[in-house]
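Write out this protein's structure.
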Amino acid sequence: MLYACFTHLAFVYSDEGNVIAAITSFRSAKKEATLVDDAYLQALIDVNLSDTYYRNAMLNHALFYLDEAQSLVDSHHIANERMQNGINYNKAEVFFQHQDIDSLRKYNNTLNQAKKGAAGLYTFQKRTDYYLMLLQKHYPKVISIIKALKNDSLYQFKTVDKQCLADAYFEAGQLDSAKSTITELINDTAEQKHAERNLRFYKLLGDIENKKGDYKEAAVAYNAAFSHTWEQLQRVINVGSISSQIRIDQVQSSYALRTETFKRERLWLIFIITATTLFIIIGALLYYN
């Protein structure tokens, strides 16, 4: 129950743009999952943590928790297709940001070979398909694909798709379309509370205005990006501190579990020794009689 409450609270904070509170709640949920020694719940929290770190451009942290989640899945033989797809997709996103095309292709192939029917799998496949095309600089093709996906009822069209569309417009030289798309995101009230996203939005807007030769508007956009950079920097510092605390929690919980295991083994050993001693005494008495 505590695990469920902390996890739900983390999602609420994440939607509100309160990254520190979200990670703190995930930390509390992870402690509860470790205390009950449930590998599935621990892996699920790792995937959620990786997603939070990814959105804040802390890619190495995101990859660390994805590797930890995969290790739990493998070591405990967790047969959950949805979780495996989530891990593979999140890794694909990290490698897309790293512009590591070979690793991205590997996880894109893995997702395309996955069984059909899992929640979000179709979206994962189509999004990582055009991620590859973006890194291969097939910008006109990416534009047509994303525009088609927007009208695809099976596809979960999100902010990341619109941002990639704006990037593709910019790289293809369609500056007016790029500006129109990124301005929609900047004016979206749901996005204004996410400093990590607005930083990228305003940076792209500044690049667009700069390329158009409107240096005054470019300076305004870059200044807005700078203000969000400062806010994001403060978040990253605090997030890094919480990340260290999570590692400490894991060590403490692991120690507590090992101690509990040793206690049980000690009790069994005492029982076996006592039973063996009684058996020898009874045998000796019978022999004596």
